[in-house]
Amino acid sequence: MYAFNYQCPQALAEAVSAFTAADDATWLAGGQTLVPVLKQHLAMPSDLIDLASIAELKGISVAGNRLSIGAMTCHAEVAGSPHVRGHIPALAELAGMIGDPHVRNRGTLGGSIANNDPAADYPAALLALDAVVHTNKRQIAADAFFTDLFETALDEGELILRVDFPLADKAAYEKFANPASRYAVVGVFAACTGNVSRIAVTGAGPCVFRADAMEQALNSSFTAAAIAGITADPEGLNSDMHASAVYRAHLIGVLAGRAINAANARGNGQ
Ligand SMILES: Cc1cc2nc3c(=O)[nH]c(=O)nc-3n(C[C@H](O)[C@H](O)[C@H](O)COP(=O)(O)OP(=O)(O)OC[C@H]3O[C@@H](n4cnc5c(N)ncnc54)[C@H](O)[C@@H]3O)c2cc1C
């Protein structure tokens, strides 16, 4: 490790001021990605602004047809929340599949999506559920938020406050997990509201993406049979020691079918 300034503001305005005043600050959430990065000196910010004490970044609530989750909400809270389990159970299940108990009790929604690891689970949920990311400056639709490998639409210093998830009629998440880290080798989140279907794929490519051909086929019939003839193109997909691009392409079809079946089995009202 190296010497840096640690700051723990108690309010949002104080945090933003501290960030702005520092030479080269970074937000600290649960430290699950950031601390290893600092230990290896892959980044050496002058100041860590810890978000842990800021009440505005915490909590889970439901209003109208939206479920809101604060950026500093850890995965275990999402997995166990009666609001999430009652309104978007697929999201609670996804959170419960992340990493191990330590990671789920330290890692946060905001840290996960700001990091945008290509194998992270939450990006698939945000994209399939057509979520909106609220920051200290603006609102960003999930479709515009995840831009590339470990890249997002966030500006330097922009702070994620919360994510609003519209309540889908039906939704489910299926992942083929790396047996060691539990990150997604491939994960598919399927959601259907009215006659609009959205299928988001994580783990397979450099960045989470929507499966357009599947979505079009599902808009007339949200069934696994509707996508049975659609095969994902391995071109441009990830290929590594865990799985080839061809195998990942195959997994997309398998997991999408399972997610659609699971969403239909759960049914309307979830
Ligand atoms: C062993 C292990 C296994 C894991 N397995 C999985 C898995 O199966 N699936 C999965 O999806 N993830 C997995 N993760 C990732 C984990 O769930 C965390 O979400 C991720 O590491 C981010 O951690 P964090 O929330 O503590 O954020 P930090 O590490 O504190 O921060 C990460 C980045 O986000 C920025 N940031 C944090 N909060 C905000 C904010 N509110 N606004 C703007 N920027 C912000 C920070 O500046 C930093 O750049 C795993 C991690 C580990 C260590």
Descriptive overview:
The protein contains eleven helices and 14 strands. It is α+β, with helices and mostly antiparallel strands. The protein has two domains: 46 residues, 2-Layer Sandwich (Uridine Diphospho-n-acetylenolpyruvylglucosamine Reductase, domain 2), CATH 3.30.43; 209 residues, 2-Layer Sandwich (Uridine Diphospho-n-acetylenolpyruvylglucosamine Reductase, domain 3). The chain has a five-stranded antiparallel beta sheet with strand order 4-5-10-6-7. A four-stranded antiparallel beta sheet has the order 11-12-13-14, sandwiched between helices. Strands 1-3-2 form a three-stranded parallel beta sheet, covered by helices on one side. It is globular. The relative contact order is 0.12. The mean pLDDT is 96. Bound molecules: flavin-adenine dinucleotide (FAD). The site of flavin-adenine dinucleotide has 31 residues, from strand 2, helix 6 and helix 7.
